[in-house]
Amino acid sequence: MAKGGPGLAERVAAAQRVVVLTGAGVSAESGVPTFRGTGGLWRQYRAEDLATPEAFGRDPRLVWEWYDWRRQLIARCAPNAAHFAIVHLERQVPEFLLVTQNVDGLHRRAGSVKMVELHGNLWRARCSREGTIQDLPETPLAEIPPRCACGWLLRPDVVWFGEALPPPALERALLAASACDLFLVVGTSAVVHPAASLPVVAKEHGAPVIEVNLEPTPLTALAHESHHGKAGDLLPRLLGFSLAPDPQPPTPA
Length: 253
Ligand code: OAD
Hints:
CATH architecture of the largest domain: 3-Layer(aba) Sandwich
Number of helices: 10
Order of helices and strands: HEHHHHHEHEEEEHEHEEH
Distance between the termini: 35 Å
Radius of gyration: 18 Å
Mean pLDDT: 92
Oligomer: single chain
Bound molecules: 2'-O-acetyl adenosine-5-diphosphoribose
CATH topology of the largest domain: Rossmann fold
């Protein structure tokens, strides 16, 4: 429900610095299961049972099988109108930053460039000894669990529960949140910190916070406007953009 005042398109037109925070809900209409909704389970496991260093230490094969399943699922998905609306927004405002909690790579495939992937990206692996990064193929992995050339296990290049966010990514997000004049939150349950603190920081620094989500969240009470519905329908409409996909070809994930 909107609380009055200018519409989102007017706020964007007047803004110099815009930050957008996204969560799994932005990819839901692409067919990617959210974490806390139905369809978030794989076999009998919840994300919280698998996305931890302890789970990886106990059974790296199981954790890699889950990520391999997710990559195969996401490889068949395409960015939706919400992803494309965010790309249009990036090109419209002078200073822009997309902060995503999503690891699916769909924002990048849609064409987003000014972006921080706070929780990493499941299309990359990282050597558990050297920290070197490598891209993963769209095809199923030949070897599970995969190993680095140095012989040590590779791990998904994502942030797991109980792990700290990469300091440069978090600092960039915090700096942008504290300096923006408009903060948009799309499709996140806003229960995982520090990502969920970013809109609070923006509000403390005087920026209006606008939320788009299927349902109310812990952020709804602090948001200047909260719009309930599907991001792929609502976001282009609120921003005054056409639903046509971005004219530029998507870059590979
Ligand atoms: P969640 O699954 O917790 O929340 C998804 C949110 O999207 C919910 O609030 C839904 O109401 C909303 N939603 C679903 N479909 C939508 C749609 N079509 N349009 C708009 N909103 C929609 O996912 P996240 O908030 O992203 O962390 O979860 C945050 C983090 O917790 C994830 O990055 C992950 C997870 O566990 C790590 O893996 C570290």
